[in-house]
């Protein structure tokens, strides 16, 4: 298998696992009364421990190096509390109050908020392609929320707000660790950030009685933690070793595609033509941004 094939396979498998975990979470919430906070705490702590164990076996020297630098550890903690924890919590709340496809697609608005951040901090007007992406994202969101009807909402205001907050949190998740990732392996940074976030939420796990769940529900939680968090992330990171980051970001659109197909097929989630068009508009902004970045790099 060539490096290109390895990269394509890794990012697609990772994105599919991510998307599937959203649908599994939607099914889990529909069958149990377990709080979102408890699920997020279990996911972060469980996945964080698994990723750190992976790092201890594969890159133990980096683990020691990071732990010997208090400022870097503090930076990882800030990434965990301001990036990882809110992105996970808002995403699961968007699923719980709405559905997995819409939550996953609204999370893909994060490039819009990243663009807004750089526009403000650099005090530069956005490029024409950026303005066009903003238009596509806003119109796509309108179609998702209203089904194209001015006088109705297809999505509850609560689900819409959590979805938007999920996009904002995903942007912070992308922006915060940039300097850390220049010095340390992404698996280590994310694993430690998840672990400290899970520790912060551990009082929820301790104070809450272990829920009485059917074996299939425990299986869902195991998949959310292991398949939908640890392995999905490892596959995604592995793809960056073989293919360009812009191609990886474009192929990550398999995540909302998977969530939509599984939710419609298994959970009978209503997803009509207006929502499909809206989703395509939002996802197209990722492709356009990647294409524009590739053109700029080609000119330098």
UniProtKB/TrEMBL annotation:
The keyword Aminoacyl-tRNA synthetase does not apply. Residues 6-145, 160-288 form the EamA domain. Keywords: Membrane, Transmembrane, Transmembrane helix. Pfam families: EamA. The chain crosses the membrane at residues 38-61, 73-94, 100-120, 132-153, 159-176, 188-206, 218-237. Belongs to the EamA transporter family. This is DMT family transporter. It comes from Enterococcus alishanensis.
């Amino acid at each position: 298998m060539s490096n290109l094939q390895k990269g394509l396979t890794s990012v697609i498998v990772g994105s599919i696992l991510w998307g599937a975990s959203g649908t599994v979470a939607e099914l889990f919430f529909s069958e149990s009364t377990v709080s979102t906070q408890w699920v997020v705490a279990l996911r972060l702590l469980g996945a964080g421990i698994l990723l750190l164990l992976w790092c201890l076996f594969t890159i133990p020297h980096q683990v020691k190096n990071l732990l010997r630098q208090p400022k870097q550890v503090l930076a990882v903690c800030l990434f965990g509390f301001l990036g990882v924890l809110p992105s996970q919590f808002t995403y699961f709340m968007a699923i719980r109050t709405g559905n997995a496809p819409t939550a996953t697609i609204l999370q893909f608005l994060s490039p819009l908020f990243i663009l807004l951040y750089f526009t403000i901090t650099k005090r530069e007007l956005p490029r024409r392609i950026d303005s066009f992406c903003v238009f596509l994202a806003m119109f796509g969101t309108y179609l998702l929320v209203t089904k194209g009807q001015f006088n109705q909402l297809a999505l509850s205001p609560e689900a819409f707000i959590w979805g938007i907050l999920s996009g904002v949190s995903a942007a912070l998740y992308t922006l915060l660790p940039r300097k850390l990732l220049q010095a340390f392996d992404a698996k280590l940074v994310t694993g430690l950030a998840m672990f400290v976030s899970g520790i912060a939420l551990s009082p929820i796990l301790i104070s809450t009685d272990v829920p009485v769940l059917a074996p299939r529900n425990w299986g869902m939680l195991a998949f959310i933690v292991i398949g939908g968090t640890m392995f999905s992330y490892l596959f995604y990171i592995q793809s960056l070793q073989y293919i360009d980051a812009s191609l990886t970001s474009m192929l990550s659109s398999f995540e909302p595609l998977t969530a939509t197909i599984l939710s419609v097929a298994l959970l009978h989630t209503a997803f009509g033509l207006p929502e499909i068009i809206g989703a395509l508009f939002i996802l197209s902004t990722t492709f356009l941004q990647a294409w524009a970045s590739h053109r700029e790099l080609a000119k330098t």
